[in-house]
Structure formats: C-alpha cells, structure tokens
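Sample pair:
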Amino acid sequence: MDYNQYNFTGKQWIYQVLLYGVIDGAVSILFYRSFLAFMVLLPGFFFFQKQRKGDYILAGKKELSKQFLTGIQAVSAALSAGYSVENAFEEALGDMERVYENDDMIMKEFTHIRNQMKLNHTLENLLLDLAKRSRIEEIENFAEVFSAAKRTGGDLITIIRNTILCISQKEETKMEIETCLSAKRLEQKIMSGVPFMILIYVGIASPGFLDVMYHNPAGICIMSLCLITYGAAYMWGKKIVDIEV
C-alpha cells in the first residue's frame, strides 16, 4: 500500500460530490445569485477532491506514525524478553492485537512483514520498503538505523531503544503543538464561515441591499475579487495552522 496515494470509496465519492455541490451552490447564490455561476464553478471539483485526498493522506500518515511507535515499542519489549529480532516482530504483532483491530494500518503492515519473512525476505528490506511507501520521517529513520545495525552487528536492543526515545520525544512535541493549535484551528474554521454568514444576514435583514452587486459587470467583478481574496486568505490561514515538526 502506497500511503502517499488515496482512492475514495464509492460512499466517499458521493459525499465529496454532495459536499462540493453544497459549497458551489452557496458560493453561486451568495456571491452571484446565478445558476450560470454554479455551472462555471463545477470544474473546481477537480481541485477540491485533490485537496481532500491530500487531507486524508496527511491524516493517515499521522495515524500510521503513532501506530508505528506503538509497534516498535512492542518490538523493544519482546527483544528485552530475549526474543530474536525476527521473532520479536511476530511477538509484537500478538501484543498489538489487544490494542488494534485487524484492519488498522500497523496490523496490516506487521502481518505483511511476518508473512514475507516466512518467504525468506529480510526484515531490514521489509522495513525499508515500508519507509519507502510511507515516506514518514520516523519510519525512514528507524528503517535506516535498523538496517545499518543489522549490517554492522550493532547492539539492536540499545539502538532500537534510543530510536524509540527520539521518536517518542518528537511525538510528544507534535502533541504539544497540536494542543496549542487546536483552538486556533477552530478559530480559523469559524472565521472562514464569517463572510458567508455576513452575506446571509444582510440578505435576510436588508433584502435588496446588495442587489446592485448582482447581474452587472461591475458587481460581478467586485464579488469575484472578494471571492478570490477570501480563497487566498483561507489557504493562507490553513497553512499557518498546519505546522510540521
């Protein structure tokens, strides 16, 4: 599985289409009051679904990173108990069955590793393959360190423990940043809806007040400029609150 690609299920496609239809309809009514605008904005669905896939990919990689940390902690515990490296991964899989469901990402990956080792594939190559498919820095670092330790005959238990410590510290830093930014993200989402709320309020409280902005070239240009400015501000705000450690 390539974690840098995402394919919507049938239900997800329906949801994305309906969601974009609502957004497209709201923009067309509030900014243009024109069905033609609705049709003109339909090609924007291509960029919308691309952005949504990116969000799903990012969320999936964050979750896999957390699950991988749990997995290698279980491996470290098995190594400390005297298991060989290969057997430690199989023992860790059994331990994680009490924490995760069989369809969770890390369970699928550790099951794949176990099955491939039975076919005489080396553990280090399997970890490097996971790192290549996920492109997650923590997994890449672990796979590279593990592979180097296996080649040089290093102390795997100490190396794995040190690597886990580094990854754990980074995850803790991420959690602290996520906690600090959670309120800002909520604020950004609320502020993103304010322009729509203002247009709805004015339309209800003062019917006809904005009629001069519709169905004429000058008004269309002004509303289009406002919409572009809003879109740029939304993307800028989203980028500000999306900090990578």
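The two ends are 25 Å apart (CA to CA).
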